[in-house]
Amino acid sequence: FSATVVEPKFPSSSDTIIPFSFQDYVTTLQAQRICINTDPKDLDYFEISGLRDKGYNWPVPFVKCDSRRCKADGESALVYCEYNQLSLSPSSSDDIIAGEMVDRFAQYIHTRYPQTSDDSGAFPFTYDFIRTDIKSNTALDDYVTRKDYGESGVPKIGVAVVFSSTGGESTKRYNYAIRVNSTNFNTPEEELEPAGATTPPTDQQFKSYAKNDNEACQLPDYGPSLGPYENSCTGQYMYNGAITIQRLVNDWIMHDTGANEKGYSVAENAVRFVSFPTRQYKKDGFYAQIAPFAPLLVFLGLIFPVSVIIRSITQEKELRQQELMKMMSISQSAIGWSWFISFFLFYFFSAICTAAASSGLYSNSTFGFLFIFWELSFVATITYAFVIAACFSKATRATLVGLLGFFIGFILAVSLDYTTMDKGLINFVSLHPVAAFSFGLQAIGDLEDFGVGVNKNTFRYSDHPSGYAVSDSVKMLVVDSIVWGILAWYLNRVVRGDYGQPLPLYFPFQVKYWCPRRIKSRPV
């Protein structure tokens, strides 16, 4: 159960990533391509000039050549290459300022790189490399989703830059988005189904969990192979063209704002990328080893209390005790709250004892946070049991169904990896209280492995790609308590039992339910 110590890493010059410049892109677009037989023993093995190892580690999303289509050594390979466009567009057709930015940016590219001009004839294709005829973000979406996208007359877009104004009249405030193909790969030989994501998600902050750049963006096993930097976030942005186009936009902004005239400039290939150094850290410690079993032990420990709650409430209805109390003018709300308060008080002290006992196991965690976690886990479990009890009038049947549903929550928790799954899916599964506290226990264990435990500084900290933290588990336990509680309140009044008269399904919308004294009695 000992943890693995990961030694600190200090990047060297060999770890430096040097992306292609836009001038390099233009050069690759101009280059002549021929089929080359590189293996005399295999007359059908071809590569295309300029693309070594069949395009492995090829960082240009605008030129993609398929060596599988070659038939003879020395044959022109231009017809086997796909040339994609760079699209510049405003966010909407009504955004005049953004449209002016598009025009100025396109003019800058044509001036600095004259080969990209429409009439230069420098490229081995007849359509424009820079296209500005797509006038909105919506039109761009419609274009790339056309059924004939990529066919003759409908060239593909390698990268798109979408400009938008900031709401004012200034044309020197630059708001733009660089859009790349999230499943892009530059070597047709690597085409696989289904396509895997090859671009890091832009809606996620990696600083919350990433130890180093080479482990934060690992590609799925079923996706294409990009090159030696394919598991690097920076490398993926390089392969998909985002870094080079970002640099191109920045160069234009320096030109457009007059910074170049004042002597400010950056050399064409001067920008390089390297990961930050990392400290020594531990991973896969004791708590990581017991992570699958800790939720199981808690689940087993709660089976009997859950069955007692369900059976006690249902037996009250089965033995007609509830109807007897209603005949004595005791309301359904009073009956429900009396049960809840009874169980809440019992589990309040149980939560204190559980937090005190678990403090010995989670020695780095704060007692207060452990108590909050356990108390909310118990409350969510109580409201779950109330919902099951509200649906049945027979104690035995209700207990069996309740325990089966409780077990389903555990199955959901162990079948999902909360460290990598989508956070929205994890939260949805956490609507079951067993899943919510199971994920929370694993998150607390992770913090213990780091030697910090759960406290006010780590309550919202996540070390995983999903971003799921202890705070998310606590939040979902609160949601569970409210949702299951409201559901129990509603079902207790509309589910038809063996005795008594249920309220109509729409009773929450009736005035007489909320304000019974305002309804005047009428003589019959």
UniProtKB/TrEMBL annotation:
Subcellular location(s) of the protein: Membrane
InterPro entries on file: ABC2_TM, ABCA
Entry GO MF terms: ABC-type transporter activity; lipid transporter activity
Pfam families, per the entry: ABC2_membrane_3 (PF12698)
Top-level taxonomic group: Eukaryota
Keyword set, alphabetical order: Membrane, Repeat, Transmembrane, Transmembrane helix, Transport
Membrane topology: Multi-pass membrane protein
Segments passing through the bilayer: 293-313, 334-357, 369-391, 398-416
Residue ranges of domain ABC-2 type transporter transmembrane in the record: 239-490
GO CC annotation terms, alphabetical: membrane
Name the UniProt record assigns to this protein: ABC-2 type transporter transmembrane domain-containing protein
